[in-house]
Specification:
Layout lengths: L1 H16 L6 H4 L3 H29 L2 H25 L9 H20 L12 H7 L3
Helix pairs in contact: 3-5, 4-5
Length: 137
């Protein structure tokens, strides 16, 4: 009887999610698959950040653009150090790539949020340029 309940629950949960793309973390079965999924998610966010930085470099005058480059280099150093600290407890373990990728992705999301206001003029009430980034975070 209990087995039948589990089969029914599995059937209904598959049917509910059949129309939408499942998140790779929901379907990952092994640590390797989880690591690959987190790496892919991190890569997506890092590409979004790189796109934002490129867009800002086109928009900003020379001196602020130079400051953005300096800021990005310093930020990358901070992220490297933060993620080393955050992953110390899994050092040498199979979950380390997952933790590091998650750390990098979270820092990238935060950096995008920090840089987004630079896309829009302060006097604008709406900013469509920001929307395309915010919807992908």
């Amino acid at each position: 009887m209990i087995r039948n309940i589990f089969i029914l629950l599995a059937f209904f949960s598959i049917g509910l999610h059949a129309e939408e793309d499942p998140d790779c973390l929901e379907t990952a079965m092994t640590q390797t698959e989880i690591n690959m999924c987190m790496g892919s998610k991190n890569q997506d966010v890092e590409e979004l950040l790189a796109q934002l930085v490129t867009e800002l470099k086109i928009l900003l005058p020379e001196e602020p653009e130079r400051n953005l480059d300096i800021s990005q280099q310093a930020w990358a150093t901070v992220v490297d150090n933060d993620c080393e600290i955050e992953s110390w407890y899994v050092d040498g373990g199979s979950a380390r790539p997952m933790v590091v990728a998650g750390c990098f992705a979270e820092h990238s999301r935060q950096r995008i949020s920090m840089l987004l206001p630079l896309l829009c003029h302060p006097m604008q009430t709406t900013c469509e340029e920001k929307d395309k980034y915010e919807s992908n975070l």
